[in-house]
Records
---
Amino acid sequence: MSSPAPLHRALGLTDTELESIREVLGREPNSLELALYGVMWSEHCSYKSSRIHLRRLPTEAPHVLVGPGENAGVIDAGDGIAVAIRIESHNHPSAIEPYQGAATGVGGILRDVFTMGARPLAVMDPLFFGELSDARQRWLVEGVVSGISGYGNSVGVPTIGGELTFDDCYASNPLVNVLCCGAMPIQRLVLGVASGVGNLAVLLGSSTGRDGIGGVSVLASAGFDGADGAESLDDAKRPSVQVGDPYEEKRLIEACLALLDDGLVVGIQDLGGAGIVCATSETAARGGVGMDVDVTAIPLREAGMAPFEIMTSESQERMLAIITPENWDAVAALCTKWEVRATIVGHVVEPSIDANGRSVAMLRVRQGFGGEVLAEVPASSLADEAPLYNRPMARPADLDAIIADDPSDDEPVGSPNDDLLELLVDPAWVYRQYDSQLFLNTVVGPGRDAALLRLAGPGLPSSERGVALSTDSNPRWCALDPRAGTALTVAESVANLACVGATAKAVVNCLNFGNPEHPEVMWQLSEAIDGMTEACVGLGLPVIGGNVSLYNESGGHDIDPTPVVGLLGVIESLVAPPPGWEWRKGDDIVLVGARHANSHYRFPLGGTRWATRRGRRGGHVPYFDAETLAAAINFVAGEVASICAGQASDVTAVHDVGGGGLAVALAEMVAVTALGVEIVELESHAELFAEFPGRFVVATNDVQSFIARAELAGVPVVPLGTVGGRTLRIGSMIELSVDEVASRRRGALEESLAAVL
Amino acid sequence: MARIGVVVFPGSNCEFDAAAAVTRLGDQAEFVWHTRTDLDGIDGVILPGGFAHGDYLRPGALARFSPVMGAVERFAATGGPVLGICNGFQVLVEAGMLPGALQKNRGLTFLCQPTTLVVSSTSSVLTRGATIGQELVVPINHFSGSYTCDDETHDELVRNGQIVLRYKENPNGSRDDIAGVANKSGNVVGLMPHPERAMSALLGSADGMVLFEGFLGVKVAPFVLAH
Amino acid sequence: MNYFVIVDVTLRKGIADPEGSTIERALPALGFTGVTNVHAGKSFRFDVEAESEEAALEKATSLAERLLSNPVIEDALPRIGER
């Protein structure tokens, strides 16, 4: 039998990383210390492969209050209100237990937001699965959606949108991303900082069990006394899936916001990946103070847990608050009211002085306060000084060949009617399961271009403002050209916000990629970050937070690069709903924005839904041109904003031309209004299904006046037709009855899900 | 100005929304924590939606034992108006203050969507300002909202005019399309839809207004116990 | 032969059980003291046509593991029940 791997490797640390640890400590680490480094220096916690690239993103703007690196990004939304936003992935947990994986993803993101002092007001969920013809995908979809619904509805935060993508590249590796946005009176903004020697670290919420103890579980058998090998890894000690408890989280939210309102905390931090070690080391490192943690003080769910398990457990629904000793009684009383357990688990202490006379904030794990020291490491070495890798990058060798097979080169064949019907999917089956209305803010809910909320909530100053949110991705484009694809995704997102009248203010991103040890994946990641930088600089947007999820692969195949853009916008006056998709009989329909893509092709089909359904995954992606895009987007946003502010307008409906192209945008409006439309002959079959952002379908009851305004703004407008009748007719290519369009769209998802198990 | 107590259980989440509906019509809303045992000075009680005690075991099953429920029962017994919305309705049936029970939706999924309600009886504090046959667009938001009861109870409900609201198109499999019921006296009412979410055209519907006006006694004659 | 099978599905040891814990915390208020270790689960009952008890249980076990539970977090315990 071969001898077991050295402990540090079993914990996921390389030999070089072990060497760095020895250097930091000036001695050999013990196994508990190794375990702490193992989790904190994991890709998940340290971003060691991506940080070097993420630095290129623009992060500053006058309205940014908190940028990347904190629990959530925060902007000043005006009227004394700050808005916090964060996006994360919960891909791998959702693949093995879809309900709990998705549920705990929601729980985690909410904690990131209320940690900042904001009350979570909305959640959005971009989801990616394999094709529904596979029974396992249906199990995953139903599990994930009911997990989001079960947790989000119960904890009392509305889920107001998301995205739903089916593609075989996600078959064994679904992506479950979750975005949360919250708001607070600006003065309640708090940071996760420990300060004030003598202050107490108080653990709030659930007890600690053996949940989500990942790589370090190897210690369960290796043990501190160096007992037996991995063979005897006993079943009861295997890492377990985290189970979410929305009821605990709800009480935790109320208790924490009340603690902040009463001024009872100095700093507060949620416990996410890497649990207590992460929360204590990050707060101590930020505050430049030491922290003594008593492992015996931490309330446990199971008997016999070892210190490494207690320190690294990812048990859900826990927070760490730093308080002054004189506030302990008040904190305890408030927590008792909300039935939230509060336990003093740590003391803020003086930083230590190292051999060179420098002050070092140490994290000490002790057996009882003042008891034996089980581990002692510089807090910042865990939190901020993880190794930084510049991994090799290489453009995929086969990419040119893939791009060369461009569907735009061939004259499209087949029935446009059938093609269009196949592309129609109403996600209502998903979003009906989400409470999208709680807090009485939802002006535009799920299933439209972007969600729009009143900026109101318990404890907020009164305001007429609104916030808009959208999540967008286009992995098909990004597989062909991650740089342009990502830039266009940002543009698409900004265009979506324009449909509800909002001006984009800040971006968060969730970068879902494959294995970073594959040079092609690192190239995709680097290109995507450059594309996002280009778009954000071009459109004047700061990136205020993000998440990187790597190792999304299965069977040796990396997923298509899937950067998800979360966009936050603000509208200054929201007293009337935006026009939405509800056009009226007799309205004139126009296309706003450049009719032709600035690309190799007037109507590019590379990476479109239409081409992908035909198994054509090659082709050229349109170029990103900030100036042209911004002109159309700003014009539409301004038109809609004036309607939201209560002004009269001839505009009756607005819809972004997105996935599926012009034909799908028109069909969606036909489906929701049950009103037909008569559209002129288009230039070509490709114009039906081509995808490139910056185009809008607008309905108006005074087309002359609308065109005059557009011309004044320098934005191209093409008259398309008139609303009326019971038929969707596009020139000589499309002729479908309103009922067929509506029923196919309504039934598509449910029918796929209902297919025999 | 009436003082309306909005009962808050740990896990309630529509308490702010219910309070907003009350204050919008000019009355005063006061949160009543679930451990309180008196309702002194309170003119009406709302049990809001949410997931009291996490809805663990069964929706409403643990909340009915909260100390405040004794006070709510005494308040109702003296004719005080009590309104249970969604989870509040579930608590009222678990507590035996309203007949019947609420089961999981027919489709076994949570449903958040607009519904059209038809007013079936005006002899309740909630519907007294409406007219029979009036249609109201009010959203639902629940997993366990399928109303059920035995034949005998159903006969009695029909006979006494206790079925106050029905769905025009049944979304969840409720018996006889029932969306809301009242007790025999009409002062205790429960419904699964959320009228507090239908108080503003900006949010899609203001049809809940007539229900809250009834409950708060705005623009309607004082409520007389049916007996 | 037709066998009546009961399958209890419970969360595996060590997995958080929020429902069980919440019920346990509520009990003292109702006057039930001294009740601990409350766990919530699901119970399924069905008839299985099989040659023998062993065969019926085997079928039920396979069914329980594949459909009624997620073995990642739940244990499924089938047994022959009395009608």
---
Amino acid sequence: MGPLIPGGYIPMEWDSIIAIFIGIAFGFVLEASGFSSSRKLAGVFYGYDFAVLKVFFTAAAVSVIGIYYMDYLGYLDISKLYVHPTYLWGAIIGGVIMGAGFVTGGFCPGTSLCAVAIGKLDAWVYVIGIMIGVFIFSELFNLFEPIYDGYNFGNITLIDSFGWNPYWVIFVFAIIAVVAFGIADMVRKRVKSVFY
Amino acid sequence: MNTKHKANPHLYWNPYFGGFLLGIIIIFTFYLTGRGLGASGAMKSSVVTVVENVAPKHAESNSYYSQFIKEGDSPMNTWLVFEALGILIGAFISGSISGRIKWRVQHSPKITTKRRLIFALIGGILFGLGAQIARGCTSGAALSGMAVLSTGGFLTMLAIFGSAYAFAYFFRKNWI
Amino acid sequence: MDKKKTVKFLSYRYQILAATLIILAAGLVLLPKYEKQEGIRSKQLLSHAISPERYISTDDISHKLISQDPSFILVDVRDEESYNNYSLPNAINIPLSKLLDEDSLTYLNQDQFDVVFYSNDTFHADQAWMLCDRLGFKNLHVLQGGLNTWYSTIINPSKPSEAMPESDFKLYATRKAASMYFGVAYPDQNLGAELPSAPSTPKKVITVEKKKKRKAEGGC
């Protein structure tokens, strides 16, 4: 079984409809967790609110554990899933630029869409900014192309790159996540509260 | 903050609960479609659509836009655009349930609205640029990548959070 | 009292949740490993293997070829040289070694056509059948007796002796007619058949619709 649409179990015409429903669930959860507030998001970098860290790492841990259990039980074939490709320097340089953008603007694209939906004007401006950023990238594509297309390692996972056992990776990841939550709570107690 | 929240009717979910649900959604997405979530792709599609309509010749000659232009089909007809529409709808539902819908600019009381908007624009430009270079944003590359243990996903996640912490000091006035 | 207990329990809720997460992750590490079985189960494979529909007789095939039945694909699993030397009309050549290549799979893994494997005997054709059936492909058949039987029944049918029942004569007549169709010349009614030359009819182009399967795609 699974994934259902690429495997032909659900006709592909449903793809877009399913996309909307998944988007609704995604948007609902993000908004309800407080990701439509840039000050809450930025809190993770100043230690006054760790919602981003908690939601992000809980989601990653739950999903990776769930996916590997489903693979083990035969409901899902991991080898058929889309693995985000690794372009070594693209990922690092792009990530650094995104990090700077995150702390400057206080949103990431998904959360800014949530904020747009509830009428935050700074999020509207932010989305326009993203579009300008994409536009700049496209216009200067020749300049960025060596990073964009270079250092391609293909659709590799940590298992391919380091030869680690995926189950141990997940176990260690879960422990890191729990430790991070503990540290986050400790840090928050020491940092002066910020009201927003 | 807790006291504030008790007085505040606009309570957010417990982050662990939100994270758990988000994880379930990611599993479900992979189970159904074999792919992860994403967000910046919708904005890229919008830009491609706008450029294609304003300057079709330019869009075709540019080697980046031309990757996304399909003959006889709008570049908007992609999975991510529909998903982004869903995000807008879902966030609107959640916001209206908790009464958070309001036109406003949220910023620290220490800075002006204008400053907040300028920084939001700069941040957006940086994020849009970075998301294209890294081929994905926090949801597309980092979150969905990590769910399948993609090396690139972990790298992007570390780079985003690492650099955000590194730059956080310089922008502290905007937030605290 | 109960309330107190609940409160006490709830004060540990995050620890409990964290422990649950770690235990679940540890469960993955501790679960017994097993080789995942790809394809259909052995029992199903057995029932397919003993099913009579698995073999298709040379007479049926010759009938289908003559009536230009479009519903099947003949697959020659011998090597290329033998294929070029002699093969059935409209057959495609997929040597056994290339059976699982991407190009071959488009022919084998589809629901539109019946696939008929053959080799000189049934040995290699059976192997091809087994491999493909295990992968869950549908509508697979093997030519009964392979090309040897094809030759001895259709191309060069043995003339029945007088004592044989009438049905045998009828069968012989059809087979002879069929062999004429496949290019065997009978200069003198029933005297020795020549070796058939390769069929001169232009090959029919078999287009297999690609299954609506695709790789998962994604990205931002």
---
Amino acid sequence: MLAVDQREAFMSVVETRVGEPDSMKMDELSIENTIGKPLLEKKISMHCREVDVFYGDKQAIFDVSLDIGKNEVLAMIGPSGCGKSTFLRCLNRMNDTISSCKITGSIRLDGEDIYDPKVDVELLRARVGMVFQKPNPFPKSIYENIAYGPRIHGLTRDKTELDEIVETSLVRAGLWKEVKDRLDDVGTGLSGGQQQRLCIARAIAINPEVILMDEPCSALDPIATAIVEELIDELRQRYTIVIVTHSMQQAARVSQRTAYFHLGKLVEVDKTDRIFTNPSHGLTEAYITGRFG
Amino acid sequence: MTDRIKATVKRGQVREAIEQSLIRRRKRNRRFRMLGLGAVILGMLFLGMMFSSIISKGYSAFVRTDIQLEIYFDPEVIDPQGARNPDVLASATYGKLVKAALRKAYPEVKKRKGKRKLYRLVSTGAIQQLRDLVLSDPAIIGTRKKLWLIADDDVDQYYKHGENQSRLKGRQLAWMAQLRAKDALKTSFNTNFFTAGDSREPELAGIRGAVVGSFFVILITLGLSLPLGVAAAIYLEEFSPRNRWTDFVEININNLAAVPSIVFGLLGLAVYINFFELPRSAPLVGGLVLTLMTLPTIIIASRAALKSVPPSIREAALGMGASKMQMVFHHVLPLAMPGMLTGTIIGLAQALGETAPLLMIGMVAFIVDIPSSILDPATVLPVQIYLWADSPERAFTEKTSAAIMVLLAFLVLMNLFAIWLRRKFERRWD
């Protein structure tokens, strides 16, 4: 409630300022072009160009162009309803499940347009894994949770290979020590933080190139959050990670680049320390200094 | 706004005002609880009345009365040639043996009318009893034996319930007193009730035919409606596009669930019997009709069960790169299974108790034989109850109640099975 009030207050400020041309520099608050460095020169994992997303008649994302670099953690921040989650879900076509959702522009993974009709969405989602806001392990054993992906994609030939994948994934997700003696227990019986790490282990079991994380710590307590953040930093060695977060501290801690979204537009992208110490756009500054959220 | 609040309750009186309203709230609360409790008690009362009425009327059908008679296995009657040919033994007129034994026991009865009354004490089922004895051991021929024979339903009713409940009169009552004095009357467990088919003679009528018929009908209903219903529910809920056509189908399914069951009977008569020319009175047709009737129930319950699977599980599966099909069959279906099975069993229980549509397809016929296949003429338990309730003989009253008890026992068993299934498959996902 407070957040909405603040935003409304801020927007009224924006309107009055727009109405008075001499009070402030226009380009500071208008969001015509993304400022910062949305595009990269090399080591690019995903290219997004001029992406528009519509829910029915309502446009949710306006003309977003953004590159996601290999082995980087890109944080997406912004007030509620700014479209950061929507944009994230475009990256592995999870929005396909919403029939009214329409996407234009191009999103490419290693040069391949993921919205090409010839693309198998199953393969895409195996290459671009996802971790959700609320931990959602399958109501099966811990072992089965991890083994599910390799099994449906036919990644293993026998049980020993599968056992190996399960162990490696759990080790990489930092969960192995805690669960190695109870792999047959139900995954939903773990604590919230453990469940989320189980979901991360499940995602990395099929060795994706990119992992999308949609507010992965919002349902966790501070200690579990710290563990998951540490894990994200380690995972960067092998995977490209895009993380949506409401916590600016989290964005500052785990990411190399940060993108700020506002009302469906990508306002500013830059190196994380620059965004948090010296933002170029007035809206970014207003958001990170907590004037609205 | 604030002015009005000040006007109704002054500052210092807030506490009193709340206390006043609390009293009112508690009263309302108490009244509601009493009402609920009253409703439950009333329901239990009626349930108790129903059960006590059925049980008190029906329990006596599980025992039958036997008469002890000394039977002379007369070789002249059974096997005049003495060849012991089984065909001859099977076709002999054993009724003569019973009549001879009765004449011998009551030599004072001379007139034809009196004799006829006398013969009526023993059931025609005794003939079958004697035939079975002779066929299993032909050496018995020529001997005299004291045997317990099935009594006629009038004797049975007299012995179990007294004079008022029986059609026996005058001399017959004197004979009954004599038999009682000689200890020649006893009750035994009525195995006939569970092993025989229907009969015009109440003491010989059993429910086996109806139970077997019900079993066949339910088997066909289950075998058709479960896969069809679950498949339809999965398609409609998970795969079908949302458009006017699927809306139309959905509305129709919901409406079908409310269609009176006799209409399904008419449909079955028109389609299965008149058009496809399937046999009348057959469990196959009964099963097909009840499948039509049960399908909407199963589809609606299954769709509700599918809907209740949390979307997070679907997202998790899709996010792993599972296809929609894999998502449904690996994750959604196992979680929806308990709900689907519960719905199915509720539908089947409904089908098991259904009478009206089966009347339309001829399952109301009087059928003595126990059906041996799904194409044989048969009847089902509720129709059997209906038939017996309609019969004039007093002895059928207790049969009716006993058959209701058997039907209720089946329903309770099915519900217990549903609960067991739900417990077994239920998994928590929070």
---
Amino acid sequence: MLAVQRVQGTAVPLDRSDVDTDQIIPAEWLKRIERTGFGAGLFSAWRQDPAFVLNQPRYSGASILVAGPNFGTGSSREHAAWALQDYGFEVVISSRIADIFRNNCTKIGVLPVVLAHDVVDRLMRAIEDDPALEIVVDVQERTVWVGALDLSEPFPLDDFTQYRFLNGLDDIGLSERHAAAIAAYEAARPSYLPTTTPV
Amino acid sequence: MGQTLSEKVWERHVVHRTDDEPDLLYVDLHLVHEVTSPQAFEGLRLAGRRVRRPDLTLATMDHNVPTAGLHLGITDPISRRQCEALESNCKEFGVPLYAMGHADQGIVHVIGPQLGLTQPGTIIVCGDSHTATHGAFGAIAFGIGTSEVEHVLATQTLPQTKPGTMAVTVDGPLPVGVTAKDVILAIIARIGTGGGIGKIIEYRGSVFRGLSMEGRMTVCNMSIEGGARAGLIAPDDTTFAYLEGRRHAPKGAEWERALDDWRSLTTDPDATFDDDVVIDGTTLSPHVSWGTNPAQTLPIDASIPDPDTIADPGAADSARRALQYMGLRAGTPIRDITVDTVFVGSCTNGRIEDLRAVAEVLRGRRVHEGVRMLVVPGSMAVKAQAEAEGLDAVISGAGAEWREAGCSMCLAMNPDKLAPGERSASTSNRNFEGRQGPGGRTHLVSPGVAAATAVTGHLAAPADL
């Protein structure tokens, strides 16, 4: 993944709760074996409505998605994170983000930012009032800044994920540093544990 | 202080631990299917990596496969390409595969337990959010994304932050006609779609002790619909009796060793949970979802709620949108809702006991005129068992379609779909907008309610017949 130190840009307000990954990227898109091109499928059912936020020109060019609570529930499809990234989103802000979706985002460099419900609500209203509102998300400081609102809000991000974002590191190479520990663990596993080798 | 069951299982899988990194966990079993794996294998190829433990990895085809006319192969060229990719990837990397047409093929969460691969105290992952199904055996089982699939293929490990713990206790006895599906729907209605985020649920209490392994799998399967990372139930004699003699279960002296260990897999009496939810099982009744997320669920005796009476503005707004999508009016009794299609199947309710429950209701009855009913076994082995018991004759005889194994209309990646505006009663796990086909409307129900609904043409419980 590419390093992400700081995202500075405008946002789209998606004022809905419980946005599931079937809405973010419908199942029909999951048949592809490629890793790219999913942006065209992002929210494809909702985008058929001309009034849907992503269809409003005033929000074009945004790099931050601000959504209602319980964003990314449902299926484990990483395609949801790929679609958001391919469309141009680098950050998702919500008061509650589903676990698997959150993990998937951190594997590819989309930053999941959890802020208190009232803060997300305030942001949402401010963006609706002024689509050009500039938001800064700083990974090093783990803080969201909105100068026009005099808002400075810290967000949770564990040290390891922060380190990976700042340096653009994906996990496999990092885990391979522990090859000796993995081999030692394997050697000590009980012999009654199953294997999948056909019998 | 004592440990909870999930903490015990977690601790025995820690390969590497430091203060400033997530735990590196060892994975005992990695299940793979065609949808979430192609980009992971491609990643391995690009990096020149191999699959570290093909003998702890098992692949099958389930999401895309047709459930009728298998001799025609997969006619959708994009679906076919994805299944062909899985076949060539498994060959290239030496991963065992039960492909379409194989006697052991089926939904990934049905075949793992059936083959005896799902065992207590293990960690099981799969690129599928319903992996928690395997928690019914006292395993920590959870869904992962494609980057994580690649990570497990390469290293047989996964870096994970330790989740919190949540106890959901339901004591009974359950009233007659209330099933495992009703219990989990009631739990999700209580905790909401986000209630379990960041946590592993342990299901405790006499209701779960009294359930069969298949009922326990139905419960654990839907843990993710309450937002939980995983859900599990402590193994007991019911678990051991299910496993004994299965193809990949330990044999002889190894079986005795395994049993000794498995009996230690319980939550210590002095352990505490981060969250405690208690539900009175004696007051539960059959449940039906009315909205577009699984928490929007009510007892079948209820009526469609009025969004204006919901205090939380977010929930009220969500209910309003759901009623509009579902084409429902506040105040309508749930039993007055008519359906076009009934779907029985999925990793939630596609096992033999589910099919027996459906056949019991359909025996001597007919599917209502104008209603299409699909019955899709969870695996080819479940199909064979059902046919050996004559269930297929009862189901077909009642006018329902008897199909081959696969995920089918649970997520409509194969040709089984709802048309826009069509309404279903479905034994699957998600009633999201468009889940069973663009514009389709889904009501989640138990197998018994599905069958009774097929007979009457409107949402109904078997006791109504």
